[in-house]
Structure formats: structure tokens, C-alpha cells
Amino acid sequence: MQTFHEAFALALSLVLSGDPDLIEIVALSLRVSLSATILACAMGLPLGALVAISRFPGRGALLVTLNALMGLPPVVVGLLVYLTLSRAGPLGDLGLLYTPSAMIIAQTLLIAPLVAALSRQVIEDLHGEYADQFRSLCLTRGQVISALLWDGRYALLTVALAGFGRATAEVGAVIIVGGNIDHLTRVMTTAIALETSRGALPMALALGIVLLVLALAVNAAAQGVRHSALKHAHV
């Protein structure tokens, strides 16, 4: 129990004192995770909507693949990104390995299938309600996708939060491509792993508490925005 008491006390002292290292790690964590979530949504939402409204041979196999990619092992993604960005890889000349950009790429590849698969179900349900109206209006596929994404924006916010949640919890892939370099690529999850390996359990638990509070704060803010928007929509 003493370890937990030390962790809570340390977490509180780190936050209240505005510890520079903590602020730096938190800021980088949010930058990487939010950037990856935005990119994944930019790719995954249109893809999910396209699959939802389309009927073509092999669609069932594509759905199975999307669902399978939701559980893609992070270390596998990290290894593939590492090989691609390494000096011997096709994008090695860009010099992105062991940078925040590499971490964003890895997290984007991890959560894009999750966003696509979850949004596909949301959009498919909406499309079933409006399919006859869309046909009567002779809308193009792009117009249908735009209308469905806008109409389902509040439900899709939950999908984005699921992607953000996975991004903030990611450690395997970001260590492989980022290297956990102090003051450069160290984020909350990799810092927790490092402190645990050092045996500094109070610091590791303190960082975990801060990470949990941040995740709860982001989710609470998003839910507040959604509730407010729905309230105004019914007025």
C-alpha cells in the first residue's frame, strides 16, 4: 500500500509543481496521439462510409479483413514502419526514424482500421434509413457519403474517441520506431515502461495516474461537446 500512497503523492506533486519533464512528456503524448487520431479519422471515416454504402464482390472478405486489422499487433506495425523508415528501407532518406513523425505514422496505421471498421457499422445503419431518399434525389456517391458522415457525426465522435484511446495506450510500436529518447520521443506510455524496468514503481504509477486523468478529461470534454450539440439540435 505504501507504493500506491507514494505514487499518488508523487503524481500530485509533479502536477502541482508543473514539473518541466512531465509537461514535456504529456505535451508530446497529446501531440502524437491527437495527430494520429486526426489522420486515422481522415482516412478511416471515408473508407468506412464507402464500404458501408457499396455492394461489390469480395465485400464480405473486406469486412473480415477490416475487423481482423482492428486487433493488429502493435509490435508488428512498429516493425513494418521501422523497416520502411530505416536507412535500408524505401523511405530511409527522409530521416524520420526515431522522431515523433515516425510515432505518428505507426499510431495512424494502428488505429485507422479500427476507425474504418467501427464507422462502417454506424454509417451502414444510417444508410439503411435514408437509402430510398438518396435514390430519389439522385445523389452521387460522394454526396451520400458526405451526408451520412455529417448526420452521424455525434456517433462518429465515439469512434474517434475509441481511436484516441488506443493511441494514448500504445507502447510497443512507438518504442520500436521512436526509441524512447529523452526530450525527443519519450511519451507517457514509454516513460511508464522505462520507470517500471528501472524499478521506480512510484514514478511509474504516478505517470499512469496522470495518463488516466488526461484520457478521462479528453473523453469528458468530447462527451460534453456532444451533449451540448444534441441539446441545441432539439431546441
UniProtKB/TrEMBL annotation:
Chief localisation class: membrane
Signal sequence segment: none
Gene3D superfamilies: MetI-like (1.10.3720.10)
Membrane spanning stretches: 34-53, 60-85, 97-118, 154-179, 199-222
Membrane topology recorded in Swiss-Prot or TrEMBL: Multi-pass membrane protein
Superkingdom of the source species: Bacteria
Compartments where located: Cell membrane
Keywords: Membrane, Transmembrane, Transmembrane helix
Domain ABC transmembrane type-1: 26-222
UniProt entry tagged with the keyword Electron transport: no
Official protein name in the record: ABC transporter permease
